[in-house]
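JOB MANIFEST
job_type = single_chain_structure
chain_count = 1
residues = 304
[input]
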Amino acid sequence: MKTVTIEHIVKRFSLEVLVGHHMLTKILKKTKVRRPGLEFMDKFDFIATEHVQILGKNEINYLHTLSDEECKLRIANIVQYDPPCIIITSNQEEPLGLRQYCTEEQIPVLRTPDSTSEMSAKLDAYVTKEMAPEIAVHGVCVNVAGIGILLRGKSGVGKSETAHTLIGRGHRLIADDIVVLKKLSPQTLLGTHDETNKEFLALRSIGLLNVVRLYGRAAFQEESRIALDIELTEWKDNALNNELELDTKFKSYMDVPVPHIQIQLQPGRDVAGLIEAAANNWYLQQQGYSAAEEFKKRLESEFN
């Protein structure tokens, strides 16, 4: 998990620093921002601490109605929850006493032209992603028709070559060789690059390619939710390759289950086409349709 500091969010969202230029090394410990409500009034043990506090129009207008001493008291109530910073939205004027009190308590005060809802959504998404547990796996990540796919297999099996073929068909590369997987929730796995391999694809006998320089921006995507785990394996003559599987197999990453299939390789086989078919079939399953279930029902009706 990466460390996110106040300086990171200041640079990421171009925030104005009103108080605390020397305090930007503070580390965020919670992923969700909060708007003070009850926190203004008194100390409550059941309210979560250490969250970024956002002051929107309602909060600022309320503070502007108070005397300096009363405003300072309300700000003091927020400070009890140990916020790493306070963000004022919509470029509003800071309330009296806020700058002085936060300077004394060493709490950075930031300002943004964004609305409260915009800033909250962007900051939540950014911090959640940056602080998510992550692992690196050997493979290739591609986005096929809007569906994130993790390609795995032994070294030299043809993962990168398959990704190159998919790019030629209008799909997008996420990462080659090293794929960073981030756990955003118990059901959501995000695939991305490690910055070093961003936009690069390594092909045996050809070398390193920059897919953006060669094929344009549409050939690359920063990240994608992983919907399918596809393993490329060597062809086995004695294997049953046309089995009718009604039960989905899964591969788990950080306890997040991902639908898993194997594609056996053989000279002349259109692997990229099979991956496209797998992606489209997964999409249909999400819409509630299963070709295997329909085929089973046809067989049952024929013999009944």
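[summary]
The longest helix spans residues 271-286.
The chain has nine helices and 13 strands.
exit_status = 0
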